[in-house]
């Protein structure tokens, strides 16, 4: 049983995406995060999958914290209906605050920004700066090519095999939340346990 409120950071696109499955997965994730009593931390925008995940969490009675750079806020896409909205100066400050507030990270389908944010979080995990679960939601095989690239990087000696295990993969929102909750419970029940996170998806 989780002892205190946990926060899940969701990285996702500011676009809707070509398939309706992308927005529906974002909405489902927002509902699940709030419905399970967790908080949502995200990039603070109203548009695309970002707006969908936030609105779904809010609509389910959840707490949502947004972090957005002022240059984006000035374009009038900042979400003003959140529990908290932090307006920062730079993208670097945004990433740092998102990482600080979160207990886990999820990447939904997205573009350059999503990958930039999530890959940096994975790099910090590789450097043992944090030990928070990091989950790709591979909607319709969206991340198949990227996951194959990571496997190639292992084969070519650029990523250690044990660090490849930091990358968790879920097929949908429900599986992603389940993986995260099992990781949290594992750490609370046995903080010294050193099991690889990829065991959680077996």
Structure at a glance:
It contains 8 helices and 7 strands. The protein has helices at residues 20-35, 48-59, 70-73, 91-101, 112-126, 144-155, 161-164, 173-189; strands at 7-11, 39-42, 64-69, 84-88, 104-107, 134-137, 167-170.
Could you explain the architecture of this structure?
This protein is an alpha/beta fold. The protein has a single domain (13-201), classed as Rossmann fold (3-Layer(aba) Sandwich), CATH 3.40.50. Helices cover 45% and strands 16% of the residues. It is built from 8 helices and 7 strands; from the N terminus they run βαβαβαβαβαβααβα. It has helices at 20-35, 48-59, 70-73, 91-101, 112-126, 144-155, 161-164, 173-189, and strands at residues 7-11, 39-42, 64-69, 84-88, 104-107, 134-137, 167-170. A 7-stranded parallel sheet has the order 4-3-2-1-5-6-7, sandwiched between helices. Helix 1 (20-35) runs parallel beside helix 2 and helix 1 packs parallel to helix 8. The radius of gyration is 16 Å and the shape is globular. The model is unreliable at 192-202 (pLDDT under 50).
SSE order and pairing:
Layout: E1 7-11, H1 20-35, E2 39-42, H2 48-59, E3 64-69, H3 70-73, E4 84-88, H4 91-101, E5 104-107, H5 112-126, E6 134-137, H6 144-155, H7 161-164, E7 167-170, H8 173-189
Parallel strand pairs: 1-2, 1-5, 2-3, 3-4, 5-6, 6-7
Helix pairs in contact: 1-2, 1-8
